Amino acid sequence: MVRLDVTPRVNLALKVTNWCNLNCAHCCERSHANEPFNLMPIDKIERYICEFKDMGIPVWDYVTFTGGETMAPYYIGHHKYIPTVADICAKNNMSACFKTNALWGNKLILSGSILKSLADIAHKHDRQISLDISIDEYHDNMNAAANVVNQIMNSQYLSAAFPVSFVGLNTPASQYKYQEFANILRQRGIYVDQMDSDGSIIMSKGNNLNVMFYEIGTLSRLGRAADNELTQHIPNGYTDCLMITNDDQVILNHKHKTTVANKTIGQVYNELIQKKR
Ligand code: SF4
């Protein structure tokens, strides 16, 4: 019997901006509020996603949006940018996952508008949209992140739309910060309990129920993390990570680099995979 290889081999991350309203010591990108917004154009995002899913090898069915701060467009009045890219993902049968510092949770009207606009896309396509919020000793964002989670847990419409991941680091300080964060959520009337050793957490408030996740991330030997000697070993995994930046660089596994130029994403991946071997 011939078995088909259907295990996904590569995932796609799109770095939409290098602007960020935090200035964390462990930032692998040197993101900062003085960086230009320089958002990745929507037509490029659409092209990358279409070409990625048609690469001819098994790929993961989600797109990670990273930065800088992915919600940057909202800070400069581009309220349609993020819902539009989530919509493009869903139309291509991909799930959108936004990495965010969640600082927008400090502005409740803005936060409500961000969550509603994304939940509308999630419900329209019957496909959840993930938020990845970093909770560790370097991010100064716990109250803002708790506001975001609280808004989600106050609404059945929002709870059904968003699985949230809290991403920490493999350090005792990070574990302590996560426990502190869970206690802040409890003070807001949210029931929080660890469900499983795989990191899933059950949360409930009133009749609203959500399963969220606590994941451990690693730091690349790049940017301020390298400057401050905060890097950690990244184990070689089976899945390749293909990141495309807002200045048209393509980076495989945080290491091998080229430019997009006129190549398709499949051609770029094949070029970079030769450097990996
Ligand atoms: S680590 Fe994340 S939140 Fe901190 S400065 Fe970098 S992009 Fe911003």
Description:
This protein is an alpha/beta fold and 277 residues long. The protein has a single domain, classed as Alpha-Beta Barrel (TIM Barrel). 34% of the residues lie in helices and 23% in strands. The chain has an eleven-stranded mixed β-sheet with strand order 6-7-8-5-4-3-2-1-9-10-11, covered by helices on one side. Helix 1 runs parallel beside helix 3, helix 3 runs parallel beside helix 4 and helix 4 packs across helix 5. It binds iron/sulfur cluster. The site of iron/sulfur cluster has 12 residues, from loops.
What order do the helices and strands come in, and which of them pair?
Layout: E1 10-15, H1 42-53, E2 59-66, H2 72-75, H3 81-91, E3 95-100, H4 108-125, E4 130-134, H5 142-153, H6 156-159, E5 164-169, H7 172-187, E6 191-194, E7 200-205, E8 208-217, H8 223-227, E9 240-244, E10 249-252, E11 256-259, H9 265-276
Parallel strand pairs: 1-2, 1-9, 2-3, 3-4, 4-5, 5-8
Antiparallel strand pairs: 6-7, 7-8, 9-10, 10-11
Helix pairs in contact: 1-3, 3-4, 4-5
The structure holds iron/sulfur cluster (SF4).
List keywords for this structure.
single chain; 277 residues; alpha/beta; TIM Barrel; eleven-stranded mixed sheet; binds iron/sulfur cluster
Helix content: 25-40%
Shape: globular
Q: Which class of secondary structure composition applies to the elements?
A: alpha/beta
Unreliably modeled segments: none
Give the count of helical stretches.
9
The number of E-state strands comes to: 11
What is the beta-strand fraction?
15-25%
Helix-strand topology string: EHEHHEHEHHEHEEEHEEEH
CATH architecture verdict: Alpha-Beta Barrel
Distance between the termini: 30 Å
Oligomeric state of the chains in view: single chain
What does the main sheet amount to?
11 strands, mixed
Q: CATH topology, which one?
A: TIM Barrel
Mean pLDDT: 91
Order of strands across the main sheet: 6-7-8-5-4-3-2-1-9-10-11
Heterogens: iron/sulfur cluster
Total tally of structural domains: 1
CATH class: Alpha Beta
Question: What's the Cα radius of gyration?
Answer: 18 Å
